[in-house]
Amino acid sequence: MVDTDRITGAAKDIGGRVQSAVGDLTGSKSDSVEGRFREAQGTAENLYGQAKDAVRHAADEAYDYAEDAYEQGRRTLREGHERSTEWPHTSLVVAGLVGFGLGLLVSKL
Q1: Are 17 and 35 in contact (CB under 8 A)?
Q2: Are 76 and 43 spatial neighbours (Cβ–Cβ below 8 Å)?
Q3: What's the CA angle centered on 102, arms 99 and 106, to 5 degrees?
Q4: CB of 17 within 8 A of CB of 37?
Q5: CA-to-CA distance for 50 and 66, rounded, in angstroms?
Q6: Contact at 8 Å (CB) between 42 and 15?
Q7: Rounded Cα distance, 65 and 26, in Å
Q8: What is the pTM of this model?
Q9: Looking at the 3D structure of the chain, how many domains does it have?
Q10: 3: closest CA among 58, 45, 31?
Q11: What does the pLDDT look like over 65-102, one tens digit per residue?
C-alpha cells in the first residue's frame, strides 16, 4: 500500500518542474522560483511518505515474527504435554525426585 504523501509529493514535484520550466521559457523569475520551491516541497513530501511506508513495513514484519514465535511456543507446549501423557511414569519419577530434593532442603534448614 502506497502512502498518500508519496502520491501528492510526486504530483507536487511534477507540477513544480513544469512550472519551473515554463518560468524559464517565458523568462518569469517568480514562476521559475515558485516552481522550484514546489518541486522541493514535493520531493520532501514524497520522502516523508517513503519513510512512513518503511516504518509500516517494519512494523508488519515485527508483528509477523512475533506471531510465528507465539505459534512455535504453543506447538512446543502442546508437544510437551502430549509426551508427558504418553510417559506418565517418567513424569511421576521426575516429580518424585523434585519432591525428594525439596524435602532434603527443608529438613536441613
Answers
A1: yes
A2: no
A3: 135
A4: no
A5: 24
A6: yes
A7: 57
A8: 0.57
A9: 1
A10: 45
A11: 999 999 999 999 998 888 777 777 877 888 899 999 99
How far apart (Å, rounded) are the C-alpha atoms in residues 45 and 48?
5
CB atoms within 10 A of CB 6: 18
Q: Which three cell numbers stand for residue 15?
A: 507540477
Quick check: helix, strand or coil at residue 89? Answer: helix
In terms of residue numbers, what domain contains 62? Answer: 4-108
Cell of 21: 520550466
75 grid coordinates: 506447538
Please return the burial class of 35, using the count of CB atoms within 10 Å of its CB with bins 0-12, 13-18 and 19+.
buried
Helix axes 4-26, 29-86, angle to 10 degrees: 160
Residues in the chain: 109
Other beta carbons within 10 Å of 62: 10
- The pLDDT tens digits for 3-48 are 788 888 888 889 988 988 888 888 888 888 898 999 999 999 989 9
